[in-house]
Design goal:
Elements lengths: L6 H13 L4 E2 L4 E7 L2 E7 L38 E4 L4 E5 L2 E2 L5 E5 L12 H13 L4 E7 L11 E6 L23 E4 L6 H19 L10 E5 L3 E6 L4 E2 L2 E2 L2 H4 L2 E4 L2 H10 L1 H8 L10
Parallel strand pairs: 1-6, 3-15
Antiparallel strand pairs: 2-3, 4-5, 5-7, 7-9, 8-9, 8-11, 10-12, 11-12, 13-14
Helix pairs in contact: 2-3
Length: 292
């Protein structure tokens, strides 16, 4: 599928809407880096996320039921009015994130505002993510925060896209070797580009089955809290146990060492506890016998 969306257009629109004050983005975040063995952490202190909310529970409905402006789809708690980029499929729309960690930071939302973030991905989600990545020449990765314990901040089902940047930490599966001291259990699959969305959603469902076993959930349990990240030839699922450890919150990015915090106090919550220990507790501590 060829989409009328190009990276040059997306970047130009991002800059225009930043200048107009629609998008919160700090182009010069304060960066702190830490390395523990092979595992790298990059902390970006940015006020852009200081107003970002966190989901308190896996509710079926948004917390407020007050009448919402037209920018909200029925059932949604995300207003994309003024942030739209365009349709990527019959079921999903691409938009700019209001609270940006990157230039650009994108949302891929279901057009159905009643779809929920605690539900697993389906074929429409995977097809739409594939379409968006392909339109952007695979210069981006896509990630999904499934449910409250997966670190999501909104109820309306959505994925997010971020760019590979030469001056910022990239997700390690995009390289040829995994860090030797990954502290949490994960499921990683590398695949040939000949595979398409239909094959990938089948692979994802099997990975979710493995994540369910890692978490010790009953086979009948419908919700498996997890993080997903996918790039050009790889997909990774991380089972999640909690959204934060004593105030150190994280979505998918943080589990890869790519952490954005609003201020030095939030940074301290990570550093004081030990970043490796935080991500270990957010996920499932890795068993010594596990191998990559």
């Amino acid at each position: 599928m060829t989409l009328p969306i190009r990276e040059e257009f997306v970047l130009a629109e991002f800059d225009r809407r930043c200048k107009a004050g629609l998008i919160f983005y700090d182009d010069k975040p304060e960066i702190h880096t830490y390395t523990y063995g092979d595992f790298q952490f990059e902390f970006a202190i940015t006020e852009a996320i200081s107003k970002k909310p966190y989901l308190q529970d896996n509710e079926h409905e948004p917390v407020t039921k007050a009448k919402r402006p037209p920018g909200y789809a029925p059932g949604s708690d995300i207003d994309i009015s003024g942030y739209e980029i365009g349709d990527v499929s019959r079921t999903h729309i691409l938009a700019f994130n209001k609270y940006c960690m990157y230039r650009p930071h994108l949302l891929l939302l279901t057009k159905d505002g009643y779809k929920r973030q605690y539900d697993h991905l389906d074929l429409d989600d995977m097809q739409s993510a594939w379409n968006a990545l392909e339109a952007l020449n695979w210069n981006y990765f896509v990630f999904f925060n499934c449910g409250k314990d997966g670190g999501c901040s909104r109820l309306h089902k959505h994925l997010q896209l971020g760019p590979y940047l030469s001056d910022r930490l990239a997700p390690w599966p995009s390289t040829s070797r995994a860090p030797r001291n990954i502290p949490y259990e994960y499921v990683l699959r590398r695949f040939d580009r000949s595979l398409g969305p239909k094959q990938l959603i089948d692979i994802y469902r099997k990975m979710i089955g493995q994540a369910k076993e890692i978490l010790g959930l009953e086979a009948t349990e419908a919700h498996v809290p997890h993080n997903l990240m996918m790039g050009k030839s790889w997909m990774m699922v991380i089972p999640r146990r909690k959204a934060h450890v004593r105030g150190a919150y994280s979505n998918t990015l943080g589990l890869f060492g790519m952490v954005s915090v609003a201020n030095h106090e939030e940074l301290g919550r990570w550093v004081d506890q030990g970043p490796l220990k935080v991500v270990e507790q957010l996920g499932v501590p890795r068993q010594p016998a596990a191998t990559d």
